[in-house]
Amino acid sequence: MLNALGLLKERRFLPLFITQFLGAFNDNLFKTGMVLFATYQIFNDATVESNFNALATGLSIIPFFLLSALSGQLADTTDKAKIVRVVKTAEIGIMLFGSAGLMAAKFGHTSIGLGMMLGAVLMLGVHSTFFGPIKYAILPQHLREHEVLGGTGLVEAATYLSILLGTVIAGWISVEGTAILVLSVAIIGWFAGRNVPEAPRQGATLKINYNPFTASWRLISDTMHIPRLFLAICAISFFWTIGAVLIVIFPPLVKNVLTADERVASLTIAIFSVGIAIGSVIINSLLKGRISAKFAPASVIAMAVFLVAFSIEARTWTPAPTGQLYGVIDFITHSQSIVLLLTLVAIATTGGMFVVPLYAFLTTTVTKDQTARTVAANNVVNSGAMTIGAVGVLALSAAGMSNEDMLIMVAGMCLISAWIAQKLHRACD
C-alpha cells in the first residue's frame, strides 16, 4: 500500500483519485447534513427519524438497482473519461436543487424542502450509479497488473476518508454553509474530472439494452456463473446489507441511546470511516499486493464480536440528564466513551479488511472490456441487498425491535459473510 502511494504522482491515477474523492465527499456531506438536520431540527421521534433515514437510504439505492446494468454497458462501450465529465456536470445541477431544498426547509417550507432534499438524494443515487463502475473498472486500464490492488486500496481508503471529512463537516457547519459548500465542491470536482485521461472502449462494440429489468437480469446471469465472482459479489452484498442497517440506525442510536447531539453523531460516523480506511491499509500490507480472500473470514468474524460488544456498551451507557444531549467535550470525557469509540474503530477496521480484497476480485477476474459490467452487476446485487436491509429496519422498528438489538442481528449476518468468504478463499487460493 505504501508503494502504491507513488501512483498519486501519476496523471493516469491522480485526477481520477481527486474526482472520486471530491464526489464521495460531496455526496456524504449533503446526505449527512440532510439527515442530521432532519433528525435534530425537524423530527422529534425515534421511529420517525429511523423511517426517514431508511427512506433516504432506499431512495439513494433504487438507481443502482434499476440503472447499474445500463451504466456498466455504457462504461464498457464508451470512453470512461467522457462519462466522468458528463456525470460531474450533472452533479452541479443536483447540488443546486438539493441546496434549494435545504434552504426551503430551513425557512419554514418543511414539506417542500424535505421533498426536494429526498429528490436530490435520488438524483445523487443516479449520479453514483453511473460513476461507480468507472472508478474501479478504469483502474486495470490505466494501471499495471501489480498496481491494481494498491490502486483499489487507495480508492477505498480515499472514499472513506472523504466520508470522514464530509461527515465531520456536516455536523459542524450551518445548513446555509452546507448549501454553499456542496455547490463549491461540485464545481471543483468538475474541473478535476476534465483531467482524467482517456479510457476508450476495449473489445467488441456492445449493443446496449435500455430495458432496466432484462438488462439487469442478463448482466447478473452473465457474471454470476463465474464461481469466484459469484462468491465475491455475494460476500460484498452481505457486507453492504450490514452497512445499510448501520447507516439507518446510527443517527437515532446516537441521539436516543447515547443521548448525544449532531456533532457527536458526525464524530462517531467519522471515526467509523477512519476505521475502514485503516482496514484498507492494513489488508493491503498483509497481502503485499496479492489478491486473496485469505484474511476475509477472520476479519468479518472479528467484526461480529465487536458489534456484540458495541451493543452491550450501548445498553449500559449512562445517558445525559433528561432533556439534555451530550456535546462533543462532554461525550469524549464521559467515563465510558473511550471503550465505546475504540470498539467502533475496531468494527470499521475489520470491515475494511474484509471488503477491499473482494473489490479487487471484481476487476481482475474478467478481461478489461468487461470490468465495468462486472462492477455494475455487483452494484445491482448490492443495491438489492441494501434495499432489503433498509426495508428490514423499517419492519423491525415497527415490530418494536430496538437499535441495540439490531446490532446483535447484524453480528449474526457477519457470520454468513464469513462463511461465503471462506468458500471464496477455498475456490481461489
TrEMBL record:
Extract the InterPro entries matched here: MFS, MFS_trans_sf
Q: Which residues form a coiled coil?
A: none
Q: How does it sit in the membrane?
A: Multi-pass membrane protein
Keywords from UniProt, A to Z, are: Cell membrane, Membrane, Transmembrane, Transmembrane helix, Transport
GO molecular-function terms, A-Z: transmembrane transporter activity
Transmembrane segments in this chain: where? Answer: 21-43, 55-74, 111-132, 179-197, 229-252, 264-283, 295-318, 338-360, 380-400, 406-424
List where in the cell it is found: Cell membrane
- Predominant localisation class: membrane
Give GO cellular component annotations, separated by semicolons: plasma membrane
**Protein name stated in the entry:** MFS transporter
In its UniProt entry, the species of origin is given as Stakelama marina
Q: What is the lineage of its organism?
A: Bacteria, Pseudomonadati, Pseudomonadota, Alphaproteobacteria, Sphingomonadales
